[in-house]
Prior knowledge:
By secondary structure, the chain is α/β, with parallel strands linked by helices. Helix content is 43%, strand content 12%. It has a five-stranded parallel beta sheet with strand order 2-3-1-4-5, with helices on both faces. This is Polyphosphate kinase-2-related domain-containing protein.
Amino acid sequence: MELKTADYRVKVGKTVKLKGWKTDEKGGMNKKEGKAWARVLADELAGWQERLYAENKQSLLIVLQARDAGGKDGTVKHVIGAFNPNGVRIANFKVPSEEELAHDFLWRIHAQTPKKGMIAVFNRSHYEDVLVTRVHDMIDDRTAGQRLDHIRNFESLLTDSGTRVLKFYLHVSKDEQEERLQDRLDNPDKLWKFNAGDLEERALWDQYTKVYEEALTTSTAAAPWYVIPADHKWFRNLLISQIILETLKDMNPQYPETDLNPEEIEID
């Protein structure tokens, strides 16, 4: 059972129209089958992460972007949760501090990129500076264009330095977002997650669609964007797991060689 992950990758140099990408796909399987397969992938992911950590020569950066209630936290819990926490760093970029605003917009980002052997997850990322800022008229189109160019160069620097970059846009429908926000209101255990500001952002749905489409044009061969159908959480988790696994296998980290001969060592 394998999904054709290339079908979800944004082609290099192509414009993006999100209305042409499905949000409710199931990959031809049902929830029970999908969750069972995801458990198999989780075991494989753990093994390949160990090899990456042991080799200590390469690193992996995973970028998660989505609208409110799009499933970033759920992806971290159910996909990234397969990894050993010792080898993972998760960064969440919120409103910049005064200190961060005193530097270029990538200053705070670069400090969170993964060192050799590590996996870093950006739960929101440097793309916030070409998304929220544009929708709320904090920057003009010219500045946004410059920032997108800087982002391409920044990601190229990372890949040239041995960091693979995977970027996932969790593509949720407006109806599904409504259900998830309502569930936060109705469920006492989830009420803490509800933010009235999410409704203000939801009212700007079309504006966010436009800026996301432009951000997705930064997909490159070395730092691709994937548009992940996210209405069904189990399928979202399955597809992202497979893409990460394929990437780790392509990186092909190796356990370091050693001169030790186990037969010559006796443990008293």
